[in-house]
Design a protein that fits this description.
homodimer, 430 residues, alpha/beta, Alpha-Beta Plaits, Maf protein, 3 domains, six-stranded mixed β-sheet, five-stranded mixed β-sheet, 17 strands
């Protein structure tokens, strides 16, 4: 009998439709992986009566209630006082938590508003869950509740609603305790392949042919511009590890370089790994991506070892003055041309002294499209010792999509160059 | 008294975390716009018992229940038989709906599986809602239910879970009927202020003092690094517009330039608006932000009118070779110093010919911190005609967080410069 959980999300931003309840999805996914049965998700606004109602309904159907939201310092943050009332407990002040909040503010040379001390109060019986990412600690409580005349054990977990704070709190402070509860299974055996350049249906056709013998499940999760292919098998099954790895080997063969990473690694992390392995440095020259390539590369800690410089030459004048693109090239072929991006890449490499430089120039839209160069037209260039590549692609979608897809293709070019793979085959042929 | 709605979403893909419940968000947003009060969102899997439970809980707290999902042709689509049982009604076959399903398949030259006829059965009292987009019609029912010994009117709306089918069905078939119900109509009067530079609790203290006389509600939505302050008043109340605007005036006074925009505008859009108004151009020189400033500025369509170039000089050598920062400055003060960012900003302006240039250099972490310059140390510089500003800030958080906050402060500097406001007061003093 697996543990039943109810996920409780609170916040006016949810009941007024300002944001989607991604916390509930993330938590449900985590629970699914642990063989925990999600009995229901309940969402209510910042209203004492409704929060109380939701908790009571959750206790009716679940052994464990995981609640997010309502731990902020303002008066519309009502979770803790509501929980304490439900438990029939008073609030206790936790000096250690208060001290941590003071420290956080001190580290920013900021005075702590008194109201922030509200976040240092907890129900008497609460076990506090530290929050390294913010000022609102979470907590958990195990209690006996009268459910239809019977005293039954119920577990409560309360966490902040900010995903950036909630996710690490769950993985680091809640999971170890959770997996010790009865009815919580061994984590499933999984393999995740990060792919770029093939449509979901194309991936499905390649992979489905490999299945059958094993009872391994495959799930595809598209989060533009990448698609993750995940193999899943219940950890309780005999030889699960070997069976999943056996299929993983065949998936690697079937997809080849379309797989740019395994596990949760990002394209920019993979680019860093490849450049380090080659002891190589990189630079970029961006127009339509406006700095997104450099931003992604520098999201990776330690990138200063291989990332030297990025030249965002948005105006034609900057392309000439900064990167040394010839005015004649711009006149004859235009800013969005293979000729221009080749000179941009060469200029970026010359100026930075990097081993490889990638360049982008295109029409991100929504305006600026012409008959010859409609919105979505993007040219890519790569310059390295003895290598000068360029290609024009017709992309699609919103401005944000085109920028993101363009940065992904450019990064994949650098990855493929570093791995000695055919660079021009990158992209998105389905 | 506004109509209370409960949104009920069914489907295993929701309770296993495969997808987020975007239908609930979309419906909540629609309801909010109509002044309908979303009392709760309930999500359960494809389980007869749990779907029944969810419907009963929904009837307890809402006048109207809007349900999506479970109308498919397969045996795990249980919504209609569950609803009929709740209503104590048998199912009736609707020939017209069946004919439409047959037509749809014929139009695709596909044979209709018998199972699809399940989608032509409805509770006896149901008013059918055509589905031009798919094979599953929706329906609505108005009934009297015994709620705690009293007969009370309840409305049910049942729609397919596929967003592409649900959304037009709601707008075309449900809305016209819905707006005829008592308690539906006048959308609430709202004002949204986008703020940066003050903590949520500090904002709360400033704003709460203004409240009281009015019954205007205030909600704070922190989506790092900005915090939106929203004033809300039911549109049905007399003089709602004037009362909200009256408070809005006082909020503008109380928060001043901490408000960077009203409505949904972003900081980068506001920077663009201010630069256009001044007919001014900008450039940037980035180190720790790695291109994020340029990326954000170029997310705004038409930015080519004011954004010229961005120099991401990650290595010290690039700072010297590209921006002309003096090697001596780097030697004596280091890359993360007010002296260096001043020269970076000056170099970016000189190279690009922009009217204003902003520069960032800092320690984004997690490594690279020293005793003098711990992780989070960031220096900002701004260079314009007759203006040379710099400041060192101690930021905090993850690498991504520090990059984002740094880009926000830099953009706010440009905004304040363009508005003739004291630039150095930007940041996050509470």
């Amino acid at each position: 009998m697996s543990l039943r959980v109810a996920i409780l999300s609170t916040g006016e931003e949810l009941t007024t439709g300002k944001i989607a309840d991604t916390n509930a999805q993330w938590l449900a996914d985590r629970c699914f992986g642990l063989g925990i049965d999600v009995a229901a998700v309940l969402v209510v606004g910042d209203d004492r009566e409704r929060i109380t109602w939701a908790w009571e309904r959750a206790f009716d159907i679940a052994d464990l209630v995981v609640c997010t939201g309502g731990l902020g310092p303002t008066t519309d943050d009502l979770t803790t006082e509501t929980v304490a009332a439900l438990l029939g407990e008073s609030l206790r002040f936790d000096e250690a938590s208060a001290e941590q909040v003071r420290k956080l503010f001190a580290s920013m040379n900021r005075e702590m508003p008194e109201s922030n001390l509200r976040q240092a109060y907890f129900p008497q019986s609460a076990t506090i869950l530290e929050n390294p990412m913010g000022t609102a600690p979470g907590y958990r409580v195990t209690c006996e509740r009268d459910i239809g005349g019977e005293w039954i054990t119920r577990h409560l977990v309360v966490m902040p609603g900010v995903p950036r704070e909630m996710k690490p709190m769950f993985d680091e402070r809640v999971l170890p305790w959770l997996t010790s509860l009865p009815g919580v299974g061994a984590a499933p055996v999984t393999r995740v392949f990060q792919t770029f350049g093939m449509s979901e249906s194309a991936l499905g056709e390649r992979v489905s042919g490999l299945l059958g013998m094993e009872d391994v499940r495959v799930s595809y999760r598209a989060s533009f511009p990448k698609i993750a292919v995940k193999l899943i098998l219940a950890g309780s099954l005999a030889g699960a590890e070997q069976r999943v790895e056996g299929l993983a080997v065949r998936v690697r063969e079937a997809l080849g370089p379309v797989i740019y990473a395994e596990g949760e690694a990002t394209m920019e992390e993979e680019v860093g790994r490849v450049l380090r392995a080659n002891n190589a440095t990189m630079a970029a020259a961006e127009s339509c991506t406006g700095g997104l390539i450099g931003h992604r590369v520098t999201d990776v800690p330690g990138c200063s070892q291989y990332f030297l410089a990025d030249f965002v030459t948005y105006s034609n004048e900057a392309k000439v003055r900064v990167l040394g693109v010839s005015a004649q090239t711009l006149d004859s072929f235009g800013a969005v041309s293979e000729e221009t991006v080749r000179e941009m890449a060469a200029g970026a490499r010359r100026l930075s002294g990097a081993d490889v430089a990638v360049a982008t120039s295109g029409v991100a839209g929504p305006d600026g499209g012409t008959k010859e160069r409609p919105v979505g037209t993007v040219c890519f260039g790569l310059d390295a010792d003895g290598v000068q590549l360029s290609r024009r692609h017709q992309l699609w979608g919103t401005r944000a999509w085109i920028k993101l897809l363009t940065s992904q293709i450019a990064l994949d070019w650098v990855r493929r160059w570093g791995l000695g793979l055919p660079v021009l085959e990158s992209g998105f042929r389905s």
